[in-house]
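As described in the Methods, two query proteins were run sequentially through the folding procedure within a single session, without resetting any intermediate state between them. The first query and its resulting structure tokens are shown here.
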Amino acid sequence: MFRLNCHLLAMFVVACFSLPASASVVRLDVAYGSQPVGAVYIELFDADANKTVLNFLKYVENATGERRYDGTFIHRSVPGFILQGGGYIFDPVQGALHIDEYTPVVNEFDAARSNLRGTISMAKLGNDPDSATSEWFINLADNSANLDSQNGGFTVFGQVLGNGMDVIDAIAAQQVVNAGGPFTDLPVVDNANPITADSLVTITRIIADPPSAISADSVNQDFGLVVLNSGPGSRSVTIQNLGSEDLILGAVGDIDALAPPFRIAPGGDGCSGQVLAATVSCSITVEFEPVALGEVADSFNVPSSDVVQPSLLIDLRGTGAPASPVLEVLPQTTLDFGAVGTGEPRTRGITLRNVGGGQLEPLPPVINGVDAAVFSLSADGCTGTMLNTGESCSLSVKLSSLSIGSVSALIALNANPGGQAAQLSLGGTVTLLQPGIDLPDTLAMGDTRGGRALTASLPVTNRGIDDLFISAIELVGADAVLFSVGTECVNRAITASSTCQVQFGFSAVPIGAYSATARLRSNDPDRPVIDVPLTVTVSEDGDGIPAAIEAAAPNSGDGNQDGIQDSLQERVASLRDVSGRFVTLEVPEGMLLSGVAAIDNPSPTTTPVVNVGTLEFRNGFFSFTIDNVPIGGDVTVNFYLPPGQSANRYFKFGRLPGQTAQTPGRWYDFVYDSQSRTGAQYFDDRVTLNFIDGGRGDNDLSANGRITDPGGPALVNIDSGSSGGGGCALPLQSLTNPGNLPVDMPLLLFGVFIFRLSWSLSKKKKDRTV
């Protein structure tokens, strides 16, 4: 199929057509269990793969209105390869059943339509090119070298449009389990055993020729590093109509406009006022010209006639970099090798990056310290290189020892110019080849309101080498009958460095303090039996803070000075901050506080930033939930600070309205916005937080009568040398990794289970695969 590429000429943007208007488009609505998570639009190659497209559309809806794809689930996920669906539905009684199939379609593979990333192809039986029926797969990578040349070639009959691969990649990132039969690579969204419909990634429906729909090639645009006074960095955002009807665009940025250092490039708005026919696109060029060091962020909106998403929000971020080279080392402080078996070497990587202008020359690394002999440099891709702005190189360090015990050393990392130096701690524990159980000494399940149940999880980690098996978990003690424990971690393999969460429950009883002991038995030869005390308090308010702590708050336990002790009110909670001082939260009458807690940084790999000064979180971070909020209604939270303290910023971590469930969370300044009536307002003794249920600041972004909030009050000191009296001071002009770094998710392995398949059906059918 002929395609016209869009070219950026100078600073002007030209709208262009991506395909003929006659091409079919379908929309796949995706859900995790029963929770909708997004839509994927796919352009079908009607003219080039006509028989295959007609076959696919017949499953979407046939002449009698039967819709066979609706309710099917993604049954195969091979990260870095393919995602496969279109074959099975889940019946709560019979388990997984294959949908009825039409006559196989003749193979229409053409080398002009390769199996590239983002294309959709038909699955088929091995050694039978003309056996494709209902099952399809989406390529997660360039698989042309493999799939174009085997079994007659796999027929590509469409491609994912817009930012739909963000949804597909999010599915591919889910945990994969072996459920037997055709489900050896089944993606699941929870660790339920047995698997239920809520565990699966479901295509709730596929709609042919959907109405107008706005999409961007990416709603998260990162300019990366831009050197100060070097001119603006430039990014192009492509807006496309993925529907079958005309899409009318309004004035770009009419609700959320950009402010310096971001701007729409002169002549770079090719979208405002445009009417985009089906599949037509336009472009917007955005510039970032920093005036200060550090990361900054902003967003702008693209309004349209799309009834589902009338205002598409585009997030921008960029980092101002100094003119001279600056060495950045990741990880920043420690290279942890974890548990390493005797005689089984383990390597870990270090990345060096130039986060300034000019060229950076890394020098040879030097390892020294007490146990330097057991560490060695196994690969050096940095010495002898010159790194330009934003470029990086990698090192590999190996730990190998025959002696058991903890080991540590230091690695010095230097660079020119300027004799720049960094140092990382190297550490690990050399162990025997056996399992090693690691878990908290106690589990404080928290505080609950009389009449409301409580749940909590206990992380059990295998710090050894061999698989860890928990054979039994018993509950003992005077109050044991009031507690319950799940079996999700019993008799399943917990692999090295993996974690399993043991779920505990508590049945609500009259006010008081309750305890029990969880006795875990495992195959750890050193700790075969471990007792973990469990504690719960039941109070009148159930806000998550035990009454004894609230009673110690200032003013004889009346933190908000309303004449009523905080421990007796469901709408008031007092708790200690990171430095042991009391803060108090207050919501309006009739609303309920729960889950109130002082927490660690909700995004440990990132920190909030401002352009000038030092950002200081004197009180740390907090989370809380507000219930009984009118659906879609507003609520005001008074956050009383310790005496003598004040704040002039409140930072939150999460997503903003218009962003999907796949959008990574990020820090944002909860500035008061008069139009949405959300944000923080600052007074001498408190911060007042204004929320709209489901709006900006509500972390679940759902109008469900509940507000959730992770974040914290902060103070910006223009004098960066100010200590601020405790807490955590963050230097704002240090160049840290601005993104959300991937966090290792423990591999969730299940006990032996399979779908309740009709084996007679399985024997009649061979797996359609790639």
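Immediately afterward, the second query was submitted; its sequence and tokens are:
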Amino acid sequence: MPRFVSLSRAAKLVGLSRGALQKRVHDRELESFEGQVSLDDIERIFPDAEIEDNHIIEDLEKIIEQALKKAHGAKLAKLLTPDPYTLAARLQTITKEHARSQAIATDFIQLFSELKNKINELASTSSQPQLFEDFNNWLDESVTEIQSSKLIEKPLLEKDTVLRVMAAQVHLRNTGHEFFVEGNNSILEAGLSAGLALNYGCSNGNCGKCKARLLSGEIKKIKNHDYTFSESEKTQNYFLCCSNTAITEVEIEADEAGSEKDIPQQKITAKVKKVDKLSGDVLVLNLKTPRTKRLRFLAGQNIVLSHADLPPFELPIASCPCDDMNIQFHIPNNASDKFTQYISNELNISDSITVEGPGGSFVLDENSNNAIIFIAFDTGFAPIKSLIEHAVTLEHAEFIHLYWIHKGEQPYMHNQCRAWEDALDNFTYQHQEYDLSDNKPLDGKLDILLKEYSDLSGKDIYICGAETMVNETQQVLLDHNANSDRVKIQML
């Protein structure tokens, strides 16, 4: 009996993106059954896939690397792998499946024996005994061939079994999203790391905003919480995502933001983690929020910063919402701006800054699977960086093209963009320098992009930068068949 797995699990097993498999389903090259695919079909379609490679080991190394940043000593082991209870429960689930398979095999052996007896009975009373004898001989030969044949190895199935021990999959019935819980993470932490906008508040078991309903599978409480469920909620299997991990594959119902309207306004005091001067023109400010009061936002949104008696300063967030405790901003180093100069010259590590928001609708359309073109002007790269990291986390787009138009020889995060291009098969990065002293600084700067896409219809395009540059770029793209409803703009 073939084993069926979700597209996300199948993609993880063969080292491809979920989008690549989704395209195969859309093109009818791969058959899907209620959102799942057969491992046998995956092996047939991808015979050369490195299904015995070290993806799982690499995943574990990533977990270790992340854990090293979070903990030291005895705390570290808890983050690296599931605890013994979790491992035992997952192994027990697989053992039960194996026992059921053995029981089915035993039933078939019994059925075969009864079939042989029935054939012999019919042969003794038939006018054509030779026919039954030939059929009986054919059965014996078939069984002998099966018993003598070498056991067919199923490396993909073996790898899936290992993955099921190391990570449990969570399915959200109400949205169709899915993600893996690795190590000893909570369901909330795993969902946020996977790029999902799950609802939460304190992430510490007090507010109850991350409550969800367990529909199937087994979970385990990993930390106590003060929030109290009603008797009705208890009978309906409600639990807190921040306080539980997944033991086996689970299906849940949980609140998830569908748009920027679903994200609440927040006011949080964050600490300065560091300030980097990447060039003479750009400052990179990194803030860290309290663990119990992290900033909820969607990739591409803005936030308002305020400090002491300085006027509020609105900036786009440059980091991914999948790491909502660490927030990054890219700030033009304007010598005439009081806030900028304070950050550059007077702000110290661990100083407090108040963040309020988020705001803005320059966000990813997660209902679209179109190819994405990002066009950034100077620090307009900040929200686009957030969008790119979010899209990559979600394995969202068929492909991504980043086109960065900038002052100076190369962009201030040129190496980051090159690293994306080297690491991602579906990512293209190009950049163009412009001269502000020119009366028409944009003139000809889009030619390389337009030569590659003679027809821009069917593409999702995101543009961010100074108002004049953005408006001129938008008009050029519309003249080249870009769909007006698929072009999003953000002014700095």
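The first strand starts at residue 4 and ends at 6. We note this only descriptively and draw no conclusion about the first query from it.
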